[in-house]
Amino acid sequence: MTEAPAKITDKLSAAVEKMPAFPKSVQRVLEITRDINLQPKELVSVIEKDPVMTMKLLRIINSAYYNFPKQVTTVNQALVYLGLNTVKNMALSFAAAGVLPQQNAAGFDMQRYLMHSLTTASLARMVCQKFGGDADPGDCYLAGLLHDFGKVVFAQFMPGEFREALAICQEQAIPLHLAERQAIGVDHSVVGAMLVEKWQFPKLLADAINRHHGDISPENTMLCSLFVADQISKKLSMGHSGNLVVDELPPALVDRFGGNIDGIIARLGDLSRVAEEAQSFAKIGTEATA
After folding, report:
1. DSSP letter (8 states) at residue 22
2. Claim: this prediction has a pTM higher than 0.90
């Protein structure tokens, strides 16, 4: 597991503390949907108490992406049409998009970053479902969605150092996390883990985010699904998170998945809907709510 050098821990902690809070309503959605005996009316009640989430949910379900024959006017109808997991993923996606700053001094493209995060989330869920393991596909979606949020912290609160890391990445054609270690002394996985801990997400999620550029254990389904999804998103140019280097699968993961990245992509089938869904979620998620 990667740890921050003591001399920059305080600086990272200060940056993390400046990040906006993750909406409590979405935290509540995550909490109640872990209950296998959840009644749909409980989820409807939580969502309806958040007018922004409600508005965005109804806006996307009535968009051209879904193209339903009749207009959906209530959260309960949306839940019937889409199902619990899709509604939960929408809530998470809208919340993540809402936390992103509109501008940053590092020149980091937040829209392309969001596309990479959303596609990695969907791909991580698909990999978990397709290849099995002991993780919840919904947790893998969340790991994919939040895995690179440390870059947002860098771009917003350490822009000079992060701009230097982006330049090193491009000039030397090396992975961004290695360039960050040169320019900052630590990579985005460390500060990303600190952020999700601040947001009070489970330790298992923070651990996966912290390790997604480190030692990928084949027994850790969430971490494996996240790592593979991250590489697929980059390989297929689904958004851009500052790093174009596609990492090879370690031999242990080749054994676990029965092949390399190209083989996994082939077994997942048509992935066009992944990008289409991400584009729809990103568009609605970043729309002004006033």
Report:
1. P
2. yes
For the stretch 93-129, pLDDT in tens is 999 999 999 899 999 999 999 999 999 999 999 999 9
Task: Please report where in the chains the tokens 């998103």 appear, as a residue.
Answer: 233
Nearest 5°: phi and psi at 288? -65, 145
Alpha-carbon dihedral sign for residues 262, 265, 269, 274: negative
Residue tagged 């990667």 (tokens)? 2
pLDDT digits (tens, 9 = 90+) for 155-170: 999 999 999 999 999 9
In the chain, where the domains are located: 6-285
Q: Does domain 6-285 have CATH number 2.40.160.120?
A: no
Q: For residues 52 and 90, what is the distance between their CA atoms, to the nearest angstrom?
A: 12
**Residue 246 pLDDT exceeds 50:** yes
If 0-12 CB within 10 Å is exposed, 13-18 middle and 19+ buried, where does residue 137 land? buried
Q: Alpha-carbon distance 64 to 107, whole Å?
A: 32
127 within 8 A of 268, measured Cβ to Cβ = yes
User: Which whole-number Å values give the CA distances from 102 to 92, 98, 138, in the listed order?
Assistant: 18, 9, 27
Give me the DSSP letters along 248-281: PPPHHHHHHHTS-HHHHHHHH---HHHHHHHHHH
pLDDT category of residue 4 using cuts at 50, 70 and 90: low
